[in-house]
Amino acid sequence: MRSLNSPAGVDLKSIIRVPGATLTPSDRRAIQCNVNFSTNQTAGMSFGSGHTSGARYEWQSACSILAGKVELQQQETADDVTAVNGHAALDLVPVEKRSAAPLRKPLSIADLSPAPTHGEKLRVAYQGVPGAYSEAAAGKAYPGCDAIPCDQFEVAFQTVELWIADRAVLPVENSLGGSIHRNYDLLLRHRLHIVGEVQLPVHHCLLALPGARKEFLRRVISHPQALSQCEHSLTKLGLNVIREAVDDTAGAAEYIAANNLHDTAAIASARAAELYGMQILADGIQDDRSNVTRFVMLAREPIIPRIDRPFKTSIVFAHDEGTSVLFKVLSAFAFRNISLTKIESRPHRHRPIRLADDANGGVAKHFEYIFYVDFEASMADVRAQNALAEVQEFTSFLRVLGSYPMDMTPWSPSSSATGE
Ligand SMILES: O=C(O)C(=O)C[C@]1(C(=O)O)C=C[C@@H](O)C=C1
């Protein structure tokens, strides 16, 4: 049994997922309905998209109750598993018998902590289905955690924001495929804080149904990052296949198994092969042995930065004027001997184009960018504080996405089938 803490610390005996089910937007509606019903303390439960806006409203009002124990009671007649709009299923958990007048428990400091306060496992949202590399990253970041699969990155963010999960673990860059831009955009759009990073060696396998043969394959499906990380190896294997992108690597294996597709292979992990009953046709098909993906851990609250171990800080900023601003910003770090580990630019969504009058009477159109910078210093370090104070002078917008311990765990490259 698990409970769901509302932002006010109200203890909601709540829902658990059916193992393997993936949270979808309609599940979130269902969860909000859940909270809705939790407030009127009747035994009835229902699910449905018709409740969406009302449920949202109820979720907010439930959060503002602030004190006391709000309980869900299992529907007497329903099975444990209730289908939600044909998507994943949710398992309603019965709570202990309630007394006529529920006792109100005062909130304590522990209730306000971002970590679970009731001795339960940390709930960590990731994008994909079990067997995805993101699930492995969640396990590396938080050993023994309860990993919660989500069908989209956006859902993983919202799962933390709605207190369904305590953390999200999301990929931001890969040594072969580069940045995962979607997550950079989402970091800006949402208000979560980066509280850590993990680097995961990614070892890809070519998976097919038992009995399937390489020469009869017509299609290879996987996450676009995985396809790009195996681009050359696939060619070298001499497969006559089309390559198709799907939402995640393990999801590709699950899809092939569910639809009994003998002419389709997936690029995914050995664990996905085990979970979905697939055979490994080729092992270690990433183009480079040192294929590594960097993930960030996100939480509702920032952690307190320290200086007794290596820290990294991630910031995002925008500026009004020309390219010299970028030079000035970067100098603020260089003068203080702070190394930058990453710089990424993304189009400025609200102000995509800047018009500049040219001396000859024409109008130049420049793209406007938002910049993401990672640097090797803690926000508790006075050098970083001074650098950011200076950066603020040149920028129209500046946000610290997080200051967090660097992943210093040693890692060894995976073996590669192609021998590169
Ligand atoms: O599809 C998965 O298994 C994921 O966890 C996603 C993802 C990614 O987004 O980069 C994670 C690690 C690998 O780089 C390939 C795919």
UniProtKB/TrEMBL annotation:
Q: Where in the cell is it found?
A: Plastid, Chloroplast stroma
Does this entry carry the keyword Transferase? no
SUPFAM superfamilies, alphabetically?
ACT-like, Periplasmic binding protein-like II
Q: Which GO terms describe its biological process?
A: L-phenylalanine biosynthetic process
Q: Name one GO molecular function term.
A: arogenate dehydratase activity
The keyword Lyase appears for this protein: yes
Q: Enumerate the catalysed reactions.
A: L-arogenate + H(+) = L-phenylalanine + CO2 + H2O
Q: What is its EC number?
A: 4.2.1.91
Q: In which pathway does it act?
A: Amino-acid biosynthesis; L-phenylalanine biosynthesis; L-phenylalanine from L-arogenate: step 1/1
Domain Prephenate dehydratase: start-end pairs: 123-300
**What keywords tag this UniProt record?**
Amino-acid biosynthesis, Aromatic amino acid biosynthesis, Chloroplast, Lyase, Phenylalanine biosynthesis, Plastid, Transit peptide
| Top enzyme class | lyase
Location of the ACT domain: 314-405
GO cellular component labels: chloroplast stroma
Recorded hits in Gene3D superfamilies, A to Z, give: 3.30.70.260, Periplasmic binding protein-like II
What's this protein's function? Converts the prephenate produced from the shikimate-chorismate pathway into phenylalanine.
Protein name, UniProt field: Arogenate dehydratase
Q: Which gene encodes it?
A: ADT1
